[in-house]
Amino acid sequence: MSPSEDGSFAPKYGPRVMYAREMISQPVFAAFCAGGVAGAVSRTVVSPLERLKILFQIQSVGREEYKLSVGKGLMKMWKDEGWRGFMRGNGTNCIRIVPYSAVQFGSYNLYKTFFEVSPGQDMSSLRRLICGGAAGITSVFFTYPLDIVRTRLSIQSASFAALSQAQRNRVPGMWATLVTMYKTEGGIPALYRGIIPTVAGVAPYVGLNFMTYEIVRKYLTPEGDKNPNAVRKLAAGAISGAVAQTCTYPFDVLRRRFQINTMSGMGYQYKSISGAVRAIVIQDGVRGLYKGIVPNLLKVAPSMASSWLCFEMTRDFLLTLRPDTEDL
């Protein structure tokens, strides 16, 4: 304790403030909050490339308005829709990614407590992979309806011939899209359309992302130090994201296709995952499973680098709020 102005010993902070600081500074809660901040920052940074990737992914034979290079695709988006085209769907994406990223980072840190042999001890790569996969599945189930709505909003105003001008001019909001899908496309199942290929891709993606980041981060940490500097953290995030995305990208293409499977003018009418894979390969070859991977890899470096850096900075700050004896 430290003496107050009148010389008596009294708490430096009130009990409510102390309780709040104690709760916020808990490792799992700090990871949860830091994950939300990291998600919002990283997705906003790469929003134009994220949307361009989606427009590339949902194309097929006869629907090739965006069969362009990345640069020309971005220019077309700007010419057709202006700055709003770059940010189309980003508001919904941030509303989705904050809880998604928060649940992902928070649950990963929670699951780690069950797999650690002893607190603070390094886990094996396999255990990191399992914890990351479980965290990815958890976050998907909590936020998937927002993801499918974001996909719809991202392509609704794009200049595809299959979409009428009236459809493009009348772009609904997030809530209106949710309600319309619920009422006209089958209720709750409609809001989770495409979740199976999503989970199939997210589990290994998140697992690989967390596993690779921690391995690369440890490798880049100078001997004798606990943490690498910001540049090394950015590099570790970029590498982990690129590895994870490349390994699991075909699942991401399948997810986007199933999310618009019943969309008027754009539906693919796939009946199964195997049928979708077969149809894509027949129409576009194996390359069809990697449509949009170039803008995806261009975005993944700044996205994951900024995500991991924001996460660690925010988490470390929150951990410093833990009350100690000097605060009493």
UniProtKB/TrEMBL annotation:
Solcar repeats: 26-114, 123-219, 228-317
Localization per record: Mitochondrion inner membrane
InterPro entries reported for this sequence: MCP, MCP_dom_sf, MCP_transmembrane
Topology in membrane: Multi-pass membrane protein
Keyword set includes Calcium: yes
GO MF term list: metal ion binding
Keyword Phosphoprotein set for record: no
Keywords: Calcium, Membrane, Metal-binding, Mitochondrion, Mitochondrion inner membrane, Repeat, Transmembrane, Transmembrane helix, Transport
GO cellular component assignments: mitochondrial inner membrane
GO biological process: transmembrane transport
Leader peptide range in chain numbering: none
Pfam short name (any one): Mito_carr
Main location as per UniProt: mitochondrion
Role this protein plays: Mitochondrial transporter that mediates uptake of thiamine pyrophosphate (ThPP) into mitochondria.
Membership in a protein family: Belongs to the mitochondrial carrier (TC 2.A.29) family.
Protein name, per record: Mitochondrial thiamine pyrophosphate carrier 1
Organism of derivation: Amylocarpus encephaloides
